[in-house]
Known about the structure:
Blueprint: H1 4-21, H2 33-36, E1 41-47, E2 50-56, H3 64-77, H4 87-92, E3 94-100, E4 104-105, H5 111-117, E5 124-129, E6 132-136, H6 147-158, E7 170-174, E8 176-180
Antiparallel strand pairs: 1-2, 1-3, 3-8, 4-7, 5-6, 5-7
Helix pairs in contact: 1-3
Amino acid sequence: MLDTNKGLTLLHLARAAIAGKFGFVSHDLPRTDWLEEPGATFVTLTLHGQLRGCIGSLEAHRPLLEDVRHNAIAAAFQDPRFAPLSKEEFAEVAIEVSLLSRPEPIRFSSEQNALEQLNPGKDGVIIEYARFRATFLPQVWAQLPQPQLFIAHLKNKAGLPEDFWSDDIRLSRYAVQKWREGEPHG
């Protein structure tokens, strides 16, 4: 079950981090122990229903507070797919924060066997091969509901051909708790 207060806190931190880069002042939230624990997040920005930035961490390597702030600023200003967010866009952008579980390796004997093990709509997936690496959050299943299509696009995102397969490919899965501005949090 989602923790509403946790989600509202993370969304506030993400928006405040971006606002600070525009010179806006936002009130600080009280420090809590759970924000100091290591956490891995992705911050996704959408504008009028379209992706406007998405940056994150696959593994917890810094306090959750810092991870959300860092990824919010990176999603707004450093996503190479987009120009930096403008002040005008900031007023209309919707923020989503995804808190990731620890990735777990998927053991498989073939591509088909790997596809059969995926849980559409639930699994975030990481693909790794040599120097290539990419991930899709579970939310991507909404656009790519078939495992074969999901993995083909994930390979493409990693810089691999969609039909590529090797016994040296590594796949991992993770779950997320997510909170989005403008959605009920109960």
